[in-house]
Structure formats: structure tokens, C-alpha cells
């Protein structure tokens, strides 16, 4: 008599994991929008679960608390910027071009991702008390600073950049020019009476920032000049710099 072997149906763990990840991602996406719109205090769990078409209990299940969810949102926006920056094709052997591309990326990223700026404004109002609890936040800044450090080292070895530059300082300078312009564009437009969000204004600011940063890092930036016609920088050195610098990076005078 043959014995029938009854096999239990295999659990579709892969499908469950995919569904769980989809739910988690949906909550994170909704939370990013809600926190950006209402801030941390106004971004309630109820609003987030409704926007995610989920349930309050799922937020606590995946993130532990509202604060845990907010920290995950902050980590997420940092990671997306880090991933985007890592995808830029940079050639450190051409340091002027590479630094120009980094500047363009940072300014463009802030402009194209206003939620990033809004969420950071919210966290700064809370004195960084949430992001300080993140174990991953420093991972994202370290890559950006490392990229700039490599570019600066290459520029210094070629005699194009100063040798006393600190990568963190250049990173902060680039970030501040992009962040401030984006976060304060509405009030500055009213205060200055100029449309800072127009394509012309944005292009002019980008060019000006690039020109300013390149002048800051260039090897002869701190060398004194005797007079108009007797510069300590030789014509040959100046030509070398200008050939390395993309014409588009020179700020327009208009």
C-alpha cells in the first residue's frame, strides 16, 4: 500500500516581504509630504496614515513612533541626495570642471527638491534633536566631503588650487549658497523686489556662485598684486586657469 506524502503549501515569503516593503515605502512617501507641509508638530500620525491609505498601527509597527518615522524621513531625504550626488560623472583629474559640476549639482538639487529644504528647516527649528538620534546621518555627509576633498587635492597637486583648503569649509560654502537662496527665495523676492525664481535670476546666481567658489580656491587667490599692470600672476598661469575653466561658469555682468 502506497503511502501518500502530503506536502504543505510553501509560504510565499517573497511576496509578503515585497508587500511589507511597499507599505513601508508608501508610509515614508506620505510622511515626507505631510511633514513638509505641516511641520513635525502639525504632521500627525492620522494625517500620514490617511495620506498613505494605511492605518495608524502600521506606522507604529514599522517605525515605532512618530519621531521614529520623522527620523526615517530625514534619513531618506539625505540618502536620496547622496545617491544622486554619487551618480554624477566626475573626473577629479580635471578639478575645475569637477568642482563646477558639484556646485551645479548642489544648487540644482535644492532648487528641484524644495521638500528637502522645508524638512531641514523644520528640523532646524527643533535644533536638530531628531536627526541627532540617527545612526546613519553622518554616512551621507562623509561622501560629499570626501568627493570635494579628492577634487581639492587634485587641484592642489596641479598647481590650480590652494593647498590650505579644508574640504568641509568648501562643502559648507557650496551648501549655504544653494540652501539660503532656495529657502528664502519668497521673502527675498519681496524684499529685493526681484523675481528670484525666474530662469534668468537662477542662471545668474549659479554663474555667480561658481565664479566666487573658483576664485576662492584658485592657487593665486591670496597673492597680492602690485598694480593694474603688474600682477604677481603670470599671463601663462592665468591662461592655464582659464583654459581649465568652462566658459559657462563665468558670472554674467548683467
TrEMBL record:
**Where are the compositionally biased (Polar residues) regions?**
241-254
Outline the segment boundaries, as ranges, of region: Disordered. Answer: 219-254
Q: Which UniProt keywords apply?
A: DNA-binding
DNA-binding region as annotated in the record: 44-63
Q: Which segments constitute the HTH tetR-type domain?
A: 21-81
**What InterPro entries does UniProt report for this protein, alphabetically?**
Homeodomain-like_sf (IPR009057), HTH-type_TetR-like_transc_reg (IPR050109), HTH_TetR (IPR001647), NicS_C (IPR041474), Tet_transcr_reg_TetR-rel_C_sf (IPR036271)
Do you know which Gene3D superfamilies this protein is assigned to? Tetracycline Repressor, domain 2
The Swiss-Prot or TrEMBL record annotates one GO molecular function as: DNA binding
Range of residues in the leader sequence: none
User: Per its UniProt entry, which superkingdom is the organism in?
Assistant: Bacteria
PANTHER family (alphabetical): HTH-TYPE TRANSCRIPTIONAL REPRESSOR SCO4008, TRANSCRIPTIONAL REPRESSOR
Instruction: State what protein this is by name.
Output: TetR family transcriptional regulator
Q: Which species is listed as the source?
A: Variovorax gossypii
